[in-house]
Amino acid sequence: MNESNLESVTLRKVAWRLIPFICILYVFNILDRSNLGFARLRMQDDLGLTEAMFNLGYGIFYLGYLVFELPSNLLLHRFGARKWIARIMISWGLISSCTMFVTDQWTFYGLRILLGVAEAGFFPGIILYLSYWFPEQQRAKMTAFFMVAIGLSSVFGNPVSGAIMQYLDTVSGLHGWQWLFLLEGMPSVVLGFVTLAYLTDYPKDAAWLSTEEREWLVDRMHREEQQRQQRHNADRLGAILQWRVWLLIAIYFTVAVGANAGGAYFPKLIKAQFTTASTFQIGLLSALPPLCSVLGMTLFGISSDRRNERKGHLVVAAVMGAVGWSLAAWAPSPLVAFVGLCVAQTGMMSMLPVFWTLPTAFLTGAAAAGGIAMINSVGNIGGFLGANILGYFGQWSMAGILLLGALLVFAVPNDSVEKKA
Predict the structure, then answer these.
(1) Whose CB among 72, 103, 172, 346 lies 3.0–4.6 Å from 296's, allowing a Cys bridge?
(2) Alpha helices, H only, 120-203
(3) 417 has pLDDT over 80
(4) What is the mean pLDDT of residues 237-242?
C-alpha cells in the first residue's frame, strides 16, 4: 500500500474508532453542565433564589474548574486518557445528579464548585488526546467533528430537558428540575465505566490497527512532535509562560464570555420573545441555534484544514457571533431576535474547532498538556463572568467582546498557526 492510501485508510479507521465515542462523552459533559440554564425556569423560584444568586451559582462552577484544570490535565498526561477521563466522567455524573438535592443558595454553590472540580480536565484532556492521534493538518476538522457535541447536546438535550421539566414535575413528589439532574447525570457514570474498556491511550497501543497502520501513525506523530520541538522549543512545562499562550488565553476569554452567557440565558431570552410558549416548546425552539452551530462548526473546521488557514477563519466566525448578538439586541421583532441568537451561536461555536488547533501547533509534551489546560481554565474566567456581564450590560456587550476577540486574533504570529504543507 502506498503512503497516501495508507494515510487515508489509517486516519479514517482512527476517526471512526475515536470521534463518535468521545463525541458522545462530550454530549453528556455539556448536558450536565448546561442543563442548569433550563432548570432555572423553575428551580430559581422553587428555591427562592434571586437573579444575582442564580447567576453566581452558574458562574461559580468555574472556581473549581479553574483551580483544578491544570493539575488534572497533567495527571491525564501522566496516567493516560483512558483511566483519567473515566474518573472524570464518573465523578461529574454523580455530582451532577446530586444537584437534585439542593435546598438553598449554599448547597447550590457548594455542588456547583464540586462539579467544576470533578469536570476539570475533560475538555483540554480530549484536545490533548486528539493531538496524539491526528496530524496537524487534520486536526481542525477532527476537533470540529468532536465539538459538534456542543450543538448536539442542545439539539437533543433541550427538547428532552423541556419534556422532563414539564411532564415529570411532581412525579414521586419531585420537582421537574430534580428529575432533570438525576436522569441527565447518571448516564455519565455508566459511560465512565465504558470508557475504561473502550479507549486506547496511544497509537502504539492500538491493537485495532494493523501493524503497518500502527507503525505509520506512530512514525508520523513522532516526526511532527520533533518538528514542533525544533521550531518552537516548546516541549517543557515552562513553555506555557510564553506570551503567545497568554494571547490565546485572552482570545479564548472573549469566546467563553459569549458562549457561557448564551448557555445560561438562551432559554430565558427565547422565553422573553415567545411569552405564550410552554416549557416543552421553549425546548424545541432552543434546539435551533445549536443545530445551526453544528453546521457552522463542521464547515469552518473542514474549510480551515483544506485551506491550511486559521486566523481568517477565526476572525470571520467572531464577527459573525458579534453580528448575531447585535441582531438579538436590536430585536425589532421576536423573529429577528431569534435569528440573531442562531447567528450568534453559529459564530461563537465555529470559532472553537479552529481555535483549538493553535496551542497544539507549537506546544508538545508536558507543555501541551499544561498549555491547553491553562488556556481553557484561565480563559474560562470569561465563563464565570459571562452570565453576569449579559445580565447587567445586555446583549450589546456580547457583541463588543466578540469584536475584541476578532481584533486580538490579528496579533497571533503566523508561525504559531500555519504550517506549509
Answers:
(1) 346
(2) 122-133, 136-167, 176-198
(3) no
(4) 64
